[in-house]
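ESCALATION

Customer reports they have been waiting on this structure for their group meeting. Please prioritize. Original submission:
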Amino acid sequence: MTGIARWKELCSDTAGDTTGDSSGGALGDVERLGRFWAAAAGLDFRPDGEAGDLVGPSEGHGIAMCRVPEAMSVKHRVHLDVYAGSVDELVAKGASVVLPAEESGFRWTVMADPEGGVFCAFLRPPDEVPGYRVHGLVVDSADPESIARWWHGVLGGELRGGADQGWWWLAHVPGLPIRSFDFVPVPEPKTVKNRIHWDVYGARDDLIAAGATVLRERDQETGWHVMADPEGNEFCVFES
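Update from on-call: job pushed to the front of the queue and completed.
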């Protein structure tokens, strides 16, 4: 299925301390989170005078690091799943273990990045870890089926899931190198701006007609519209 918008890239907020240097050795480094995620995701880090950008073989692989004044205050409602050769490998890069797989009974270890943002690590034999290591984009949802169907209409791809599974996901989204775009049920409501969001190419009016709301109009300074989906998840729209 073809949608009304096209994937551009991911974006991640960081409240890194600008008093640090850019050597990567100081924990106060404003680039620290970007450098961590470049290593964890299998991307290249490109300094830009702020928090930096993460780039890969296509624009869709990218993660733009966005400097924000506010620190993380609640659990991320959007997180990434990554492949890794070992938990120790990620810890050496700056992550910490939140819940080991052997304690949860799941196939993944819940971890936290250097700023406390939760992500999940799926272990593979080192020779089976792909170059691009992000395999899942996961969104906490009040109604996973409804919001998954909405994003299916926006981005296209294949809609999968069901009541028996309890969660829904998109696969084969055009331009999205991540294998699975997941929507999972949680009991708590959204209370603050998501620290991970995504950008798309599309038309503002088409997205409004589909049910999105405008949070901030495009202006000369930004060049993009900030919008929200029906559950309040922020995303940015760049008009083609």
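Sent to customer with the following note: The mean pLDDT is 93.
Escalation resolved.
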